[in-house]
Amino acid sequence: NYGNQIDGVSKSSVTHQQDFLNQQALSPLISLCPHQEEGLNDVQEIIKTEKAFPERRLRGVLEELSVGCSRFVTLANKDVNQAGRTKLDRERLKSCMREMDTMGQQAKQIRTQVKKNTVKDKLKLAQNFLLRLRFLADEPQHSIPDVFIWMMSNNKRIAYARIPSKDILHSTVDEETGKDCGKVKAVFLKLPGKKGFGPAGWTVQAKLELYLWLGLNKQRKDFLSGLPNGFEEIKAAKTISGHHSVPPVGLAYNMKQVFQLRAHMYQARSLFAADSSGLSDPFARVFFSTHSQVTEILSETLCPTWDQLLVFDDVELFGEASELRDDPPIVVVEIFDQDTVGKAEFIGRTFAKPTIKMCDEHYGPPRFPPQLEYYQIYRGNCTAGELLAAFELLQIGQGGRVDLPPLEGSTDTERGPILPVPLGIRPVLSRYRIEVLFWGLRDLKRINLAQVDRPRVDIECAGRGVQSVLIQNYKKNPNFSTLVKWFEVDLPENELLHPPLNIRVVDCRAFGRYILVGTHAVSCLRRFIYSPPDKTSNNWAHTEEENDKDKKKKKKKKKGGMEEDDETDERVTTVHSQNLKEKSKEKKSSKDKKKGQAADCSEKRPIKPKVDELLVYNKELESEYGSFEDWLHTFNLYRGKAGDDDEHALDDDRIVGRFKGSLCMYKLPLSQEITREAGFDPNMGMFQSIPHNDPINILVRVYVVRATDLHPADINGKADPYIVIKLGKSEIKDKENYISKKLNPVFGKSFDMEATFPMESMLTVSVYDWDLVGTDDLIGETKIDLENRFYSKFRATCGISSNYSVHGYNIWRDPLKPSQILAKLCKDAKIDGPHYGPGGKVKVANRIFSGPTEIEDENGLKKQTEEHLALTVLNHWEEIPRVGCKLVPEHVETRPLLNPDKPGIEQGRIEMWVDMFPMDMPAPGPAIDISPRKPKRYELRVIIWNTDEVILEDDDYFTGEKSSDIFVRGWLKGQQEDKQDTDVHYHSLTGEGNFNWRFVFPFDYLVAEEKIVISKKESMFSWDETEYKIPPRLTLQVWDADHFSADDFLGAIELDLNRFPRGAKTAKQCSIDMIRNEQELPTISIFKQKRVKGWWPFVARDENDEMELTGKVEAELHLVTGEEAEKSAVGLGRNEPDPLEKPNRPDTSLMWFLGPLKSIGYFIWRNYRWLILKTLGLLLLLLMLGLFLYSIPGYLVKKMLGA
């Protein structure tokens, strides 16, 4: 349908045109997505195949993106104010313009940063751009309905395809045209409704080739313009008078091309496991045009090598030859799993475009014969393996098939008429020998409810293989008695085309039955290819002078306070020398180092002696040292059907055990130099000088420093964590030492366990949450494979410290001294040395190292020793040619805690390290003490002497005069409930107050962390106390006391007891600048000064939220230790012992109800005495006048009557 009729929905022309405008405006954005996707896929393919210059292609992709973004912004600027757009359309377009503009600028910036070593990181950023583009291109409000195509059978809808209208939208501007508009497109029909979801909906019900065009009525003359040429229209009789151009009823093609398709199906790898055994029985079905063929079925494999040529004869394609050459139809390949009962199960699907050859072209390089390529197989949205194949489409000319390149006949009598992949296309093969190291099997689960007892490992690659010896009793010893076996096989010279190697473990049961336990496919063999050492290069033979220069550089680094490593995720923990009581291994002190390392170190380093340092990795040690798989590799064994979820986390459920061993492959014949070397054991092949795999007893010492960011396990959002250590059948529960209500607990514990390798080699460190009622909950756990660590050449048994010390906090932990370790390493590696010479020098493998030769014992006596020299070599062992590697230093590793019930989600992190000591060696010393530092008891005595210039808050009832009833309140942060108040200085008219009042604050303090430690119950319902660490801060406040209402707050000052400004000597010198410019002023610490006296300002915020001065306080701070406080006790306020004098306060400071006459006399008489005297005189006069007037009439009568 076209014009105004779309899927049966009729719309008015105006509305319809608006919809087209909206769609067309976003079309350039939509067209950018496929270009970007194609470009990024190219970059991935270049990286994968290790071709040259992937960075150039990525720069081109980013350039195309930035140009596309600017083009979209230019076009959108014209469109945004077009008539017929609603406000929503305009705002959406503006939003897209903003996003695209930003994206274009970012792409341009990233393009300049693309280098050879940053390609992978920048590729991820470019993929994020693609996701953003897709999000913007997706229309949130679908204005034009999509097109639905239904397949009907017996009036039932059996399959359908939905085609987005934006993809087939026509426009006169090419950039705005939908990607499939006016093109012949293959459409795959799927099941309708709920049937279409999940695995059932992934199979194709039918394939249609459609030509679709959707446009405005006025543009209908263009609707056939995209069809392949060479057709005639079959038109219906004119029934609609108004329409001049009606779509034809049919098309008759008189131009067709005949082709032959050759599908070279070589192999597939890492296919989806479709059977319960963890394997599949795969075959491939190839669809092209209206033809389909299948390969043979290969049983029980995930990496089938079909090596089969499928020939599709007489494939008819319509259209001009040039059109077909530019855009050939796609080939669809579907992989199925053949089941004995029922239909074949769908594994995955991939698409490919064939390399096309027309009859007039020569069959030869560079295009022919085609190269085998890898095609990604998809199952729904998930990847399900890769297909290695090549497809060529050859035109059959006038001469017929005779002109085509000849096909080789079937050479394999067993496989019947199956054609192999021709020689020019199949890889060139060479003879390889694959040596297999069979070490042992671990953690095998039950199969069919029975335990695995006599397992065997079968190795297969390209049809050849080898079997291990049978383990006679898996429980007693899961290691193999014969270590090395080999087999020879023909493999492609191109390493990228190497077939996978399959590892299968079977269990020998009664009556000679073999049951499959699990399988593993090693898809990439490149890392196991043996490369002989280059003995011609002498660039490793550094001179002694160069070595000294290196040393100087390293020394300079250390003086800066923090050793900078290439890896950003390593940091160095430094511990102050005053806290060296065996605590250097604890990392708590590194918190404040991170904040003020540079500032602190510049002051402290010259004064204090050098402190030994400890590396703290903020990741697992395995990720730093390649999982310790330098010669012993671990292969997970899988069994069971793979899950269909998008996440592959479910694969963990399929793991049924682990095979430990290794592979080594090399071309034959091998150089005679290697086999002629002294001590070469032909039975061990390339696995010379590896240790024996007999059972060995080990002492395992686990140090747990702390846990961070634990997942809350209780209702209050906290947890009560404790440690549980499991190794084999041994288990240590530290339940009684749980830490209450902490998500960042500091454990500081060490645990000793004995184990026997290989039976007990998996260490599990768990953190549980203690509960008063019910079972304790697992917060998270981490598992460490101790066996790989123990046997690794990186020597992960006990970390090599930076300095050798026989006493003190950093005592040497290893039972072997550095010289013994060095001698053993040199002997095992068959290198010359060590030769100790005069002047503090040692020579190892033509490499000279220098270092100190004296050591101090506990009494301070100096002795001659070679240990420092040996340790210098060990710390630079990676510089030794051929055998050198970085030995594991003294360290703390940070491991993620995981919970099996919440797979893939980190539940916190744990900081720890593990030491291992063989029991047949000398016994190690006692474990070092890493318990958390105990806080020290202190007492802070604060004497408030006077205040001055305190703002006056009250108005006098009688006189209106300003005054304040001043008192001072003080407390230490975190102890607000223990706040203390002075007595009240009443009726201060000038802001002056006299107190002579003492506050006493006892507290526990951690010197190294500069924190006060407070233990208190969170609430009345809490079972136990919770410990808090807070900075030591003294708060002093000045208040105005009120009798009948709440006291008025006037001002405050908070002093950080570690860094606060020195007090002013007089009240005049005390100003608000002491608070405002606190960062610039010199600061003092009460922990160093012990006693400080001075004036400090009180401040408060005014209505404009600006600081204003509200008073000054003269105070004296005196810090004493807990012992000193007991010896010289003092009283609170002005009490005994050591009482303070009473302050000399003015008479006005009395309370009015204690001395009312005195108060009246002071306030009224002093200010109004003349007024009172005048009033009294006037009253007397008036009284006399009144008496006179009262008595005069009687007196006059008496006189008149003569009385």
TrEMBL record:
SUPFAM superfamilies in the cross-refs: C2 domain (Calcium/lipid-binding domain, CaLB)
Membrane topology (UniProt): Single-pass membrane protein
InterPro entries: C2_dom, C2_domain_sf, C2D_Ferlin, C2E_Ferlin, C2F_Ferlin, Ferlin, Ferlin_B-domain, Ferlin_C
Gene Ontology annotations for the cellular component aspect, listed alphabetically: presynaptic active zone membrane; synaptic vesicle membrane
Chain intervals for the UniProt region annotation (Disordered): 536-604
Pfam families for the chain: C2, dsrm_Ferlin, FerB, Ferlin_C
CDD domains listed in its UniProt record: C2D_Ferlin, C2E_Ferlin, C2F_Ferlin
Transmembrane segments: 1177-1197
One BP term from GO: synaptic vesicle priming
Subcellular compartments: Membrane
Molecular function GO terms recorded: AP-2 adaptor complex binding; calcium ion binding
Stretch forming the signal peptide: none
Top-rank taxon, per record: Eukaryota
Keyword Nucleus found: no
Chief location: membrane
Swiss-Prot/TrEMBL keywords: Calcium, Membrane, Metal-binding, Repeat, Transmembrane, Transmembrane helix
Extent of Basic and acidic residues compositional bias: 579-604
DNA damage as UniProt keyword: no
Residue ranges of every copy of the C2 domain listed in the record: 243-368, 415-541, 681-799, 920-1071
Family the UniProt entry places it in: Belongs to the ferlin family.
Descriptive protein name: Otoferlin a
Native organism taxonomy: Eukaryota, Metazoa, Chordata, Craniata, Vertebrata
